[in-house]
Amino acid sequence: MKIGIIGCGNMASSIAHSIKQSIGAQLFCYDIDTDKANRFSQVYGAIRMNNEIETVESSSIIIIAVKPKDIFDVLEKIKDGISEKIIVSIVAGISISKIKEVIGDKKIVRVMPNINISVQKGVMGICFSEEVTNDEKEKIINLFKSMGEVIVTYEKYMDAITAIFGSGPAFVAHFIESFVDAAVKLGFPRQESLNLILTLFEGTVVNMKNNMLTTQQIKDMVTSPGGTTIEGLVEFERRAVKGAIIDGILKAFERSKNIL
Ligand SMILES: NC(=O)C1=CN([C@@H]2O[C@H](COP(=O)(O)OP(=O)(O)OC[C@H]3O[C@@H](n4cnc5c(N)ncnc54)[C@H](OP(=O)(O)O)[C@@H]3O)[C@@H](O)[C@H]2O)C=CC1
Ligand SMILES: O=C(O)[C@@H]1CCC=N1
């Protein structure tokens, strides 16, 4: 499989890392910043191309991993070389119909991954334009399945997937940071606290998954009547922490709907 990547930033690196670990496809890459493209090429064994169109010509699947403001520029440059190739956009908030406005009725896949694909623990939404055949869909789904869990979905759900799973790692990191700050406030060193708190999060997740526990069951098991945990939970409720988190995710959802 020959995969071209246009834009060699954070997400492209996560994707390339995952592909290298799992299916080992031949990668071709291009970034407007030559130093970045060179580094990417060295780290992931990708062949560096001189421009967007060369990248398209060398590949059968082309992943566009530039910021939303840059995608239309890229599409303009590649539109004449696409033919039957598959264009995969991971760009937040840009619909298949917007992409078609520039390149026409081509084979287009929209994927919303998250950075956890670099450790094969991503959760990603995928939807297809009607030009993509069933065999091609299967190929793309298998490619992304090597990076984590795939939700094959309708495009109308992509903004929600962006807000929950695309942005999710940053939100989770924010919660972890709150625990670390609390530990530092209570006199523990930051780095040691971070490592232990990561085990706290991981342990809770593994416990819930392995024992099929709901959030309520975990809370019931931990919260002794009149004990310490209820004091913390009551304070979280008083400060509407859950409402603030939900509102934060809804803000991300609104932004995904109106990114440009
Ligand atoms: N980061 C994340 O967790 C996620 C991001 N996404 C989406 O992925 C896309 C990429 O995000 P991310 O990797 O974080 O962004 P980055 O800014 O890290 O990477 C984008 C790269 O593309 C380069 N670029 C800009 N224009 C062109 C061009 N015409 N041709 C080639 N390269 C170009 C940029 O260069 P320069 O910086 O010089 O402009 C930059 O190096 C975004 O659209 C985002 O919505 C989706 C899911 C999760
Ligand atoms: O913040 C962003 O816009 C991108 C999309 C999802 C995660 N990062």
TrEMBL record:
It catalyses: L-proline + NAD(+) = (S)-1-pyrroline-5-carboxylate + NADH + 2 H(+); L-proline + NADP(+) = (S)-1-pyrroline-5-carboxylate + NADPH + 2 H(+). It comes from Caldicellulosiruptor diazotrophicus. This is Pyrroline-5-carboxylate reductase. InterPro entries: 6-PGluconate_DH-like_C_sf, NAD(P)-bd_dom_sf, P5C_Rdtase_cat_N, P5CR_dimer, Pyrroline-COOH_reductase. Transmembrane segments: none annotated. Residues 155-258 form the Pyrroline-5-carboxylate reductase dimerisation domain. Residues 2-93 form the Pyrroline-5-carboxylate reductase catalytic N-terminal domain. Belongs to the pyrroline-5-carboxylate reductase family. Its EC number is 1.5.1.2. Catalyzes the reduction of 1-pyrroline-5-carboxylate (PCA) to L-proline. Pathway: Amino-acid biosynthesis; L-proline biosynthesis; L-proline from L-glutamate 5-semialdehyde: step 1/1. The lineage of its organism: Bacteria, Bacillati, Bacillota, Bacillota incertae sedis, Caldicellulosiruptorales. The gene is proC. It is found in: Cytoplasm. Keywords: Amino-acid biosynthesis, Cytoplasm, NADP, Oxidoreductase, Proline biosynthesis.
